[in-house]
Design goal:
It is built from 32 helices and 29 strands. The N and C termini lie far apart (84 Å). InterPro entries: DNA_mismatch_repair_MutS_C, DNA_mismatch_repair_MutS_N, GIY-YIG_endonuc, GIY-YIG_endonuc_sf, MtDNA_mismatch_repair_MutS, P-loop_NTPase.
């Protein structure tokens, strides 16, 4: 019997370690956030004296909190502030300052999310047990209590990071953001691969996936490692950072038993199986593929969702699209999604707002009967939007097609007629109970001599929630009590107020007013020095005699300025009781409605998820149309193969493909055409676009098999059974593996999982090891992929691979194109046939700011190495005369030296002739000369070991350097002598020759310099400098000059 693993996975949880530590029920944890710096965290035991030894430990504990823990504490404080409920406010404000009190397991979540464990220190191994953190929350019993009496508490609920605490939400006037549910995951190994069982306690569902690769399983665990299980160690590394325990027996039964035990569920609680059959469904993306393509947000990689969806589409719709990319659907669902998107792109009518509610939120609030009127209004919006889709002729077909993708996402199979019928019924029922339109008879009470804010705070917590018709008697009792309170205040307080106002209001004189005491929820008289020195029977004296000091709920005097009367207190008590009764009845109605709708929870979950999918697809279509993307033609390779068809299902054609992170609507990005019927062996220079091409093809294929639009002009994409992209590898010191070991591990997984229906993309294969053996490994991998018959690309800089006797049948050699522009080789980023042996390594290094001296020395070493190789090759050719296929090494044109004096003189003459012809015509146009004789160019040669004449001093000149490598450099200067000296001071330029001519003024010199830079390459000369040709346009568009040819 194989061992299985139960893992607690923080699904989409921002905390890196969501499992709280366990404490004894007598522990009290106190956090203080009263200052900008974090206070110390202490752990006390109730009813135990502190000995000298324990006091010493307590003093040592004060140093536990260090600066690195401060962000965790601030994170928790922000979470507390954003999730405040009425009950939470009561819990916090009853203490002194900003202290938070937590008792027993109530302390667990505070301690864990703060990153601290006073009982176990900061050690990660101080966790007493594995599994999901279930926190027992204890609330105080609210209401009046006797003075000095012990506080009464009760267990109000349980919570964990994937299922937040919702007690008291039903009485709040706000929404609550829910995280995605956190599953308990079981992992085992079978003959098909890895099996993963995921159980959601909140949703009471489970799903099972079999046949997963190690990399796909790690991707699921990381977006939701067993060395004994995973050959590559990925799974062990992933699970080793979580809390797990080994299980024996049937994994599904054991997992469900542990979940029930962990959450305190009854044995008769059932979990619904939401597993969707994976037959003919593409395999989930590997972690490397998902990271390098941007499906998982990775630093430096364009994030897919940023380009698939507009910036305002976040939350549940974005998460649905991401999950679809990570787990591509079967062909039928992908084709349906594409049909939906096509219909959406042609919709001309208005569309709903698509209210999105987390399914786990619906289930938990209805189950615990804590759904407030805000949530009921959102639920009704969901149902009404479903009905809007159904009733609109343009949107009705979209609703029908959305049923299948929603079934796959929820595991619920509901037909459209049933959905519409249930939506109508539930929407009507909510409208009967919930106050939706702000009824006029739901206004707050308002009476004279009572502050309006008092009525606002007393009645806002229950008025406007449900329709008044259901609570007529309770509402009338509140109105009568409010009127009686106003009358009592008018009779007992108003005469005193009028007496005070009639008196002289000098400094220190009598003061008094009717005021709302917010902390005590009472309306009292507040005044000073209003008692008369002599009782003379004047107005107000009788009321002053009736005033008594105000006391709080425990009978303690509130202050010296607060007064009340028995009549006012009786009226206040009556009003509070009436409000409490009305609030209780309102909450009972809301809870009864929650219980009633719990029977419809499947329909509500289905409807909510349908709108999430609709919103995601509408957003994608809007962004795709803006970017001018297209819908590809999908080919069902599975059915084609089963029916014996061999044409079409094993090829991918994409016309006008552009990188998905470029905006084609703005004209950015180079488009390529891909006609792939087999493997490509791709070469190209550095920066030539190989990696971008692989990432673009991978993204387009993934978009296509998910039913989305693709960044191309047209596309035909088969339904791949897997898409695997390997871009680069980093070392893993924790696992003791080098980058080459990681690369080999990933390539092993790719080769093992590849079939004839797979798309395999490998970038710069075997670059992390010695060249010769790396080349042979790369060649063997190419042969293996060729024999498998999959589509894909393997790119490489290992050009010696073409010298090996490859036994490939279908592999095609492709290259990234380049062109010669302005004296330099530049990449075109275009895919062409053939082999590219130029790496442009020196140019790339120079462009990235590598010092010129290093690059020059590298060029010298390169020349030396190639010369040595050439001599060795000649020697080898002489000793092996029977070789019928000798390898010819051609030096690049920029390294073909002029080897004789005659050839040098001829070359100088050609340069002088070309310069004279180009500049003479240009000088005529620049200076507007009337005849060619006025613009004669007289070139002067400065040979090696020569200097320019004195006549050149202070004059503007244009010069051309004849470099030893047969390339030219064009420049202009007013200090020719200094410029010649500067150029010859550089290494390898000591014997350089110069050709120069004088002109009248620096402006003319600059324009002629630009003219030569732009025109000499067109006459067959290679230049080393093109900078001045980039930002000036002189001479680039003149047909007469461009037509000047030189016969060499």
């Amino acid at each position: 019997m194989s061992a299985s693993v139960a893992i607690s996975v923080p699904w989409r949880c921002s905390s890196s370690s969501p499992i709280p530590y366990c404490f004894s029920s007598s522990s009290i944890i106190i956090f203080s956030f009263s200052s900008l710096q974090p206070k110390q965290v202490y752990c006390f035991k109730e009813k135990k004296s502190t000995s000298t030894k324990s006091a010493k430990k307590l003093r040592e504990l004060k140093d536990v909190i260090v600066e690195k823990d401060y962000p965790h504490i601030m994170w928790w404080k922000e979470k507390m502030q954003t999730c405040v409920k009425t009950s939470s406010v009561q819990l916090v404000t009853r203490l002194v300052g900003d202290f938070y009190e937590a008792i027993g397991f109530d302390a667990c979540i505070l301690v864990e999310y703060a990153g601290l464990n006073p009982c176990g220190g900061l050690r990660s191994d101080s966790i007493p047990k594995a599994g999901c953190p279930v926190v027992c929350i204890v609330e105080e019993v609210q209401g009046p209590s006797q003075a000095r009496s012990r506080k009464s508490r009760f267990i109000s609920g349980h919570a964990h990071p994937g299922s937040p605490y919702v007690f008291g939400l039903v009485e709040d006037d706000c929404d609550l953001e829910f995280p995605e549910p956190m599953p308990v995951v079981g992992v085992s190994r079978s003959a098909k691969g890895y099996c993963m069982v995921s159980v959601l306690e909140t949703m009471k569902t489970f799903s099972s996936e079999d046949g997963l690769t190690e990399e796909a399983l790690v991707t699921k665990l990381r977006t939701s490692s067993w060395r004994e299980f995973g050959e590559g160690g990925l799974l062990w590394a992933e699970c080793n950072g979580r809390h797990f325990e080994w299980l024996e027996g049937d994994m599904l039964d054991e997992i469900l038993f542990r979940v029930k035990e962990l959450y305190g569920l009854d044995d008769n609680v059932t979990f619904r199986n939401v597993t969707v059959a994976s037959e003919n469904r593409p395999r989930p993306l590997h972690l490397g593929t998902a990271s390098q393509i941007g499906a998982i947000q990775t630093e430096g990689i364009p994030f897919l969702l940023k380009y698939l969806l507009p910036s305002n589409c976040t939350g549940l719709p974005a998460m649905y699209v991401r999950d679809l990319l990570l787990n591509p659907p079967a062909y039928a669902i992908a084709s349906t999604i594409q049909d939906i998107c096509k219909l959406m792109s042609n919709v001309s009518c208005t569309i709903p707002e698509f209210t999105c509610i987390t399914p786990s939120k619906l289930v938990k609030l209805l189950e615990l009967r804590e759904t407030n009127h805000v949530e009921f209004c959102k639920i009704k919006s969901v149902l009404d939007e479903i009905l809007q889709l159904y009733s609109n002729s343009e949107l009705n077909e979209i609703l029908r097609l959305l049923m299948d993708p929603t079934w796959v996402a929820t595991g619920l199979k509901i037909d459209m007629e049933t959905l519409v019928k249930e939506c109508e019924s539930v929407s009507h029922r909510i409208a009967e109970i919930i106050s939706l339109d702000g009824e006029s008879n739901q206004k707050m009470s308002s009476h004279v001599n009572i502050p309006n804010e008092f009525f606002e705070e007393m009645e806002s917590s229950w008025k406007g929630r449900v329709k008044r018709i259901h609570l007529i008697e309770a509402y009338e009792e509140v109105d009568k009590a409010a009127e009686a309170l106003s009358l009592a205040a008018t009779e007992d307080f108003l005469p005193v107020v009028l007496r005070v106002r009639a008196a002289t209001a000098s400094f220190g004189g009598p003061r008094g007013e009717i005021t709302y005491a917010r902390e005590h929820k009472a309306v009292w008289f507040k005044g000073r020095r209003f008692t008369p020195a002599v009782w003379a029977g004047t107005p107000g004296e009788e009321q002053i005699k009736q005033l008594r000091p105000s006391v709080d709920a425990r009978g303690r005097k509130v202050g010296e300025e607060w007064f009340t009367t028995p009549k006012v207190e009786d009226a206040l008590t009556r009003y509070h009781e009436a409000c409490a009764n009305a609030k209780t009845m309102v909450l009972d109605l809301l809870r009864d409605l929650s219980a009633e709708l719990q029977a419809k929870v499947n329909v509500l979950v289905f409807a909510s998820m349908l709108l999430v999918i609709a919103k995601a697809l509408f957003a994608h279509v809007s962004e795709g149309r803006r970017r001018k993307w297209v819908f590809p033609t999908l080919i069902n390779s599975f059915d084609s193969q089963e029916k014996g068809q061999t044409n079409g299902y094993h090829e991918m054609q994409i016309t006008g493909l552009s990188p998905y992170w470029f905006d084609a609507a703005e004209g950015s990005g180079v488009r390529n055409t891909i006609d792939m019927k087999s493997m490509f062996l791709l070469t190209g220079p550095n920066g030539g676009g190989k990696s971008s091409l692989l990432r673009s093809i991978c993204a387009a294929a993934l978009f296509g098999i998910c039913g989305f639009m693709v960044p191309a002009e047209s596309a035909t994409i088969p339904q791949f059974d897997s898409i695997m992209l390997h871009m680069k590898s980093y070392d893993s010191p924790a696992d003791g593996k080098s980058s080459f070991q990681i690369e080999m591990s990933e390539l092993r997984s790719i080769i093992v999982g590849a079939t004839s229906k797979s798309l395999v993309l490998v970038d710069e294969i075997c670059r992390g090891t010695e060249t010769a053996k790396g080349t042979c490994i790369a060649a063997s991998i190419v042969e293996t992929l060729d024999s498998i018959g999959c589509l894909g690309i393997v790119s490489t800089h290992l050009h010696d691979i073409f010298k090996l006797p490859l036994t490939t049948r279908n592999t095609v050699f492709k290259a990234m194109g380049s062109e010669y522009v302005d004296g330099q080789t530049k990449p075109t980023w275009k895919l062409i046939d053939g082999i590219c042996r130029e790496s442009l390594a020196f140019e790339t290094a120079k462009r990235e700011g590598v010092p010129e001296a290093i690059i020059q020395r590298a060029e010298e070493l390169y020349i030396s190495m190639r010369t040595t190789d050439e001599k060795d090759l000649s020697s080898e050719k002489g000793s092996h005369k029977t070789d019928n296929h000798p390898t010819v090494i051609n030096l690049p044109s920029n390294l073909s030296f002029v080897e004789s004096t005659d050839e040098m003189q001829k070359f100088l003459k050609e340069v002088e002739t070309a310069v004279s012809m180009i500049c003479q015509r240009g000088l005529i146009e620049v200076c507007k000369l009337r005849s060619t004789s006025e613009g004669v160019i007289r070139c002067v040669l400065i040979a090696p070991r020569q200097q320019p004449p004195p006549s050149a001093i202070g004059a503007s000149s244009v010069y051309v350097i004849l470099r030893p490598d047969n390339r030219l450099y064009v420049g202009e200067t007013d200090d020719l002598e200094g410029r010649v000296r500067a150029h010859r001071s550089k290494q390898g330029m000591q014997n350089a020759s110069f050709l120069y001519f004088l002109v009248s003024g620096k402006s003319v010199a600059c324009q002629l310099e630009t003219l030569l830079i732009n025109q000499l390459p067109k006459h067959g000369f290679q230049l080393t400098n093109i900078a001045d040709g980039k930002h000036r346009n002189f001479g680039t568009c003149d047909a007469s000059i461009e037509n000047v040819t030189l016969h060499r």
